[in-house]
Amino acid sequence: MLKERKLFLIGVWVAILPFLGFFESWRKILFVLTGIGIIYLAYLFYNEAKVRNSKDENVIKSFIDNIGSGE
User: Fold this and answer.
1) CA distance to 47, 50, 58, 60, 63, per residue, from 53 (Å)
2) Would you say residue 46 lies in a domain?
3) What pLDDT is attached to residue 57?
4) How far is Cα 8 from Cα 40, in angstroms, rounded to an integer?
5) Per-residue pLDDT averaged across 11-36, rounded?
6) Would you say residue 41 lies in a domain?
7) pTM score above 0.85
8) What is the mean pLDDT of the chain?
9) What is the C-alpha R_g of the chain?
């Protein structure tokens, strides 16, 4: 939940950043740093999904046919 909240706050930051009145050079630097933050969060989400998928592969999924013999 913490990563999702950070991603939401970064989205809000990107939405309001152009209107905050920073100098052009500062704004570019802030956008680059924000992009690096988004890349880092995406990497964390990727690792979490990879771990979750590997746990799913370790579970034996059995199929039991529950159809009667037709009687």
Assistant:
1) 10, 5, 9, 13, 20
2) yes
3) 60
4) 14
5) 91
6) yes
7) no
8) 82
9) 23
Q: Which two tokens stand for residue 22?
A: 């920073």
Cβ(10)–Cβ(44) below 8 Å: no
What total number of domains does the chain contain? Answer: 1
Is residue 69 a part of any domain in this protein? no
Region 12-40: what's the mean pLDDT? 91
Which residue in 7, 11, 28, 27 sits closest to 19, CA to CA? 27
* pLDDT grade for 48, boundaries at 50, 70 and 90: confident
Buried/exposed code over 14-49 (b: 16+ C-beta within 10 A; e: otherwise): eeeeeeeeeeeeeeeeeeeeeeebeeeeeeeeeeee
